[in-house]
Amino acid sequence: MTNATYRRQDRPWAVFLVFLRLGLTSFGGPVAHLGYFRDEFVARRRWLDDRAYADLVALCQFLPGPASSQVGMALGLGRAGFGGALAAWAGFTLPSALLLTLFALGLDAWQTLLPSGVLHGLKVVAVAVVAQAIWGMARQLCPDAPRMALALCAAAFAFIRPDAWGQLGAMAVAATIGAIRWRATAEQGAALPVPLGRRLGALLLGIFVVALLGLPLTQHYWPSHTLALVDAFYRAGALVFGGGHVVLPLLQAAVVPSGWVANDTFLAGYGAAQAVPGPLFTFAAFLGTAMNAPPSGWAGATLCLVAIFAPSFLLVAGALPFWSRLAGNPLARGALTGVNAAVVGLLLAAFCHPVWTSAILRPADALVAGAALWALMRWRWPPWLVVMGCALVGAALG
Prior knowledge:
Strand content: under 5%
Number of helices: 18
Distance between the termini: 55 Å
Largest sheet: none
Order of helices and strands: HHHHHHHHHHHHHHHHHH
Structural class: mainly alpha
Shape: globular
């Protein structure tokens, strides 16, 4: 992103205000977010042109983490430096993070004040949302029999080894298969101008790797609950391909079996996360607030939120100087093809358990979930409206 592409005219606070408005109004998930960004920064403000924006989106889809948040960070980085990147992230993220934190703080009270079926309705709507995500991702990322078979194998492996290391192993095997099987057919990305030098980019990528490898080792030798939280959420943010919904199995495997968060609370929060604007990764703020052991509350929300987004900042800023070379590497593109197929399988495994098994307890629940899925896919209702509808139906059913 050269000066011809990005004209650095704004201070970080101005970038923050622009992204705050988007953070308050951007419903609909990452694909919708990217559309809002294009309207705001390409068509309206002309911060960059369509070609540069398309290249930026390609980079952020190539990297693990929340693509829409990474695009926002990169836009802020080009507009006002590192302060602009942080301002863009804060403006886009804080509205939904605050709402989910407040929801978690009031969850115990609401369980007594609200009809019991409301929270169950939030768990049921999660079934429809995840099913929609699986269907859309499978159509795009598994368009042929080999990739569909790879997805099913990844799902089976996740059932056999339902922890974070099992999921990482499935993605590693899929990346190897993809590099061999699809390297000749992988599409080459376009060159992308960058605002950083390769030395700084390499330093940021080095910090990313050191944190990814060093946090579990440090936790092993100096056990600490706080360090364990940072490790779990950093790893989730660093190793999730395919969008926000794919973070569900990694977070569930980290916080539910360990007893940090009850499974019912996890699914209720996941349902509520569909009703707020902004990135789904702000679900981390809900989990941090709802922790059964300190740090929890506001401190837990802040810790988990920063930990899950830190890899995105390091990766997008560090990878920008190397993107043009990496995008043209057939092995890297083939590996990404395999990983994308595997994440469909991981999401399918998470859909079967715990999403379905914990929410669908009676035939009426299945009917409500089916109706919600129909409203999302056929009638194209906004997710927040479907969430509210399921909460009301849950209250009526009791």
